[in-house]
From TrEMBL:
Pfam families: HTH_1 (PF00126). Belongs to the LysR transcriptional regulatory family. Residues 1-59 form the HTH lysR-type domain. Keywords: Transcription, Transcription regulation. This is LysR family transcriptional regulator. It comes from Streptomyces oceani.
Amino acid sequence: MDVVSACRAFVSVSDRGSFTVGAAAARTSQSVASRRVAALERHLGEQLFERTSRRPTLTPFGQDMLPFARRLVRLAESLEHEAERARRRPLRLAVPGTCSTGELAYLVADARSQGVALEPQVGTPMERAELVRAQEVRAAVLAVPPDEAIWTVPLGLAGTRDPGRRRVYLETLRVGRADASPPRRIWIQPEDDVPHVRDPITRLRDAVGLRPAQLVVAGGLTAAVAEVLYSSDLLLCSAAQAEELGLHWRPVGELALARGFALSAVTEGERARVLERLDDVLARCLGTGPDPVVVGPGGDGSRAG
């Protein structure tokens, strides 16, 4: 039996001295209230009301039980109130700074349609890991190697000039002794300043004979993009980022690079809840795709070959 509903009917009828009025106050019918009180009496083994008069009168046993029934009803109401507050409490989620404002807005809106009040907090890979470790957020999208990832995002090089070919090879950026023009640089944004991205491209830089200064870790995405827009430099980024910035994007010729993302949460239940409800919308926000897409200003949408 539903002890809480039965106690609620018992308290309501007792307070109003009528099954009809008490049932209405408890937002149920008189017959339902009567059945609930009768079920409670059977459960407790004694009558709660005298039924010899027109108005229900508490028995001595009913008088003894009434304070406890009130307490149970109050506790149930407090539980329901706290559950509602918990459902409305924002889920703070640490996300990469590579997520655009538009995609974050769609993420929040889609989460709301799934019954999740999402509050994104942008941070670098190191900041996101620390936020979830310190439980300052309930979940975080972490940067991991692609073979450990839930979501992967192919990386390539983007610039203001159309390279005229389907891939960009780092060896073509090598500067000759007679070349008077400034060496073209590759800018690594903070999101990709992680070993599984930074180290392979650094080794490739050395293998093809680029100068050390031709690979630069930027202090921020805005600064890196500004350098690319001002010069012939290139930005290491995803196709989605390049399209948003109006840059021509191509995969790296000698090396397959990708961001890897996994989800960490304060509890395993929280992690499972986020993945169950937000897997697809998080993937879109992070810029995942089945294959790298060659893009330029306006985006031609052709697949890299």
